[in-house]
Design a protein that fits this description.
Blueprint (H helix, E strand, L loop, with lengths): L1 H12 L4 H21 L4 H5 L7 H7 L12 H20 L3 H18 L7 H12 L14 H7 L3 H5 L1 H28 L2 H5 L2 H5 L11 H5 L2 H23 L4 H19 L2 H11 L4 H15 L8 H5 L3 E3 L5 E3 L6
Antiparallel strand pairs: 1-2
Length: about 325
């Protein structure tokens, strides 16, 4: 019973994966900012009240909540859209703390609801993961220091501050569990597909016009070996990913393989937002590796102490004697 008790005490007193979850916050903020910036020139046509989806039709088909539905005014649209862009930038830079993160989530939800046809699947994960991040200390790393968080924390009672570590660890566990569920469910659904069973699914996926990369995709789907390897390898990886992260020695390798997997999706299929959202969640499993990398970077960037030469050591405190010897100089009284 002592060992489970010691683990529970460690879980309650030591925050885990702080660097990893901070990286998750940065990358999710960047994904939102990238979405705003990539559509900025066409924002009036795509999201405006008189654009592709008029405001009246948008209100009729809206099943949830969106700030864009509150008013058909073009000024209101411009305000909400630019506020969402500013909130995404603040989350990326680490400004605003949990209130800023919550505002970013609400504005991101709103713009995603405004034009569902532009979504690539990463939005579903962002909807779930960002509220989990509100429990964590994801602003402890990679954040611009403003001093506001310290002043607010100083006014919080000590008992409430003591709960920050358990809540943080709970949030990290929820993010890790969610990403594992995504992998397992996706893998099991693929297992039930006929094309995934006979090893030809990658051939059909990479020939879809919306997902094809001209000049590159044919190098994969025209190679039988790569098609079979990619199809069966994808299913095996998705199903067994949770087992890999459960073993501490395999955890960084499983996370690195997942990052490589989603980078290939971003490159060949153009699903950049989805791929970066998945990679953001994978960073939770790479927190120790990120800590080690940051430590090595600080060590290399730290200025080395200057070595003193023999002349610098002897000249200030000695004077040459008449016969070439050195006599100690008299100390000055101040």
């Amino acid at each position: 019973m002592k060992r489970p008790g010691a683990r529970l005490d460690h879980w309650s007193l030591h925050a885990v994966a702080v660097t990893g979850v901070s990286g998750t916050r940065v990358l999710l903020g960047f994904v939102g900012l990238m979405y705003y910036v990539s559509q900025y020139q066409e924002r009036n046509y795509l999201f405006g009240p008189d654009g592709l989806l008029p405001h009246d039709e948008f209100q009729q088909q809206l099943s949830g909540f969106s700030f864009y539905a509150l008013s058909p005014s073009p000024l209101w649209f411009q305000f909400v859209h630019h506020a969402g862009m500013a909130a995404a930038l603040a989350v990326t830079l680490g400004i605003g703390g949990r209130p800023g993160l919550a505002l970013h989530w609400a504005l991101l939800w709103s713009v995603y609801q405004r034009q569902p046809g532009l979504l690539d699947g990463g939005d579903n994960l962002a909807y779930i993961v960002i509220p989990f991040l509100l429990l964590t200390r994801c602003y402890d790393r990679f954040a611009l220091p403003t001093g506001l968080a310290d002043r607010v924390a100083g006014r919080v009672p000590g008992r409430l501050r003591a709960l920050s570590v358990p809540f943080h660890n709970l949030g990290v566990l929820m993010v890790a569990t969610q990403i594992c569920l995504v992998y397992v469910v996706s893998g099991l659904y693929k297992v039930m597909g006929e094309e995934w069973q006979d090893g030809t699914a990658l051939f059909y996926v990479m020939r879809v016009a919306e997902f094809e990369l001209p000049g590159w995709s044919h190098l994969v789907y025209e190679n039988d070996f790569l098609v079979v390897l990619g199809t069966y390898g994808t299913v095996a990886f998705l199903v067994y990913f949770p087992l890999g992260v459960l073993v501490p020695a395999l955890r960084p390798w499983a996370a690195a393989a997942s990052i490589g997997f989603h980078l290939s999706i971003a490159f060949f299929m153009g699903l950049t937002g989805f791929a970066l959202t998945m990679i953001a969640c994978d960073l939770v499993f790479l927190s120790d590796a990120l800590d080690s990398a940051l430590t090595r970077l600080r060590t290399r960037c730290r200025p080395r102490p200057r070595r003193t030469t023999r002349q610098e050591d002897t000249a200030p405190g000695t004077r040459a004697g008449a016969q070439g010897g050195a006599e100690p100089s008299q100390p000055e009284l101040v």
